[in-house]
Amino acid sequence: MIHPAATLAAIEVHREAAARPPAEIVVRRGDSLSGIAARYKIEWPGLYEANRTVIGENPNLLNPGERLRIPSAASAARLAASYRQPMVSAVAAPTETAAVQGAPAEPAASGGSFQECVISRESGGDAQVMNGSGHYGLYQFSYSAWVAAGGNPADFGNASVAEQNQVFATAYAEDGTSPWAPYDGC
């Protein structure tokens, strides 16, 4: 007969093992640092710092097949404190970099405006990028968020930079930084 205390101890060991993140994951198409970090409940800058040598200088560019080490939450928090924003090239053509009307002008965590930080973190400046989960454009809108902020449904997936900026300004006016800041660290 198995002693009840032994059964409870085995269950606790199993729960603890399930709660720990894997030591390493393989990047899949559509993965982002913020998405991976959210899945393991850690800070994305800490995940980036733990894997800077694999990822390179641009935290927005993950390649399928890369192996990333998943730090503990405590380690990720310590590493996040040492995060330094890499220099990212211009986010759009010079005529399209003017600040969006209504977007905050104060510096964000990246040293630029909140809008520039979101573009850098979400799309790396690629206005036509579509990620694996169906988020689109400079600001990585979902279809429903795009339409809710006044985006033309027919333009989702093929909108101009000007229209994307307008939809961002509307979403920002309605919801502030909340759609982006928790995920992007802006």
Topology readout:
Layout: H1 4-19, E1 24-26, H2 33-39, H3 44-50, H4 52-55, E2 67-69, H5 73-81, H6 114-122, H7 143-148, H8 161-175, H9 181-184
Antiparallel strand pairs: 1-2
Helix pairs in contact: 2-3, 3-5
Fold and architecture overview:
The protein has a two-stranded antiparallel sheet. It has 186 residues and is mostly helical. The protein contains nine helices and two strands; from the N terminus they run H-E-H-H-H-E-H-H-H-H-H. Helices cover 41% and strands 3% of the residues.
- What would the CATH topology of the largest domain be? Lysozyme
Rg measurement, Å: 20 Å
Main sheet: strands, sense, barrel: 2 strands, antiparallel
Give the neighbour order of strands across the main sheet: 1-2
The count of β-strands is 2
Q: Give the CATH architecture of the largest domain.
A: Orthogonal Bundle
Enumerate how many helices there are, as a single number.
9
- Note the beta-strand portion: under 5%
* Low confidence ranges: 86-111
The CATH C-level class name of the largest domain:
Mainly Alpha
Count up the domains.
Answer: 2
Q: In which range does the helix fraction lie?
A: 40-55%
This entry's quaternary arrangement is single chain
Mean pLDDT: 75
Instruction: Please report the distance between the alpha carbons of the first and last residues.
Output: 57 Å
Give the SSE order as H and E letters.
HEHHHEHHHHH
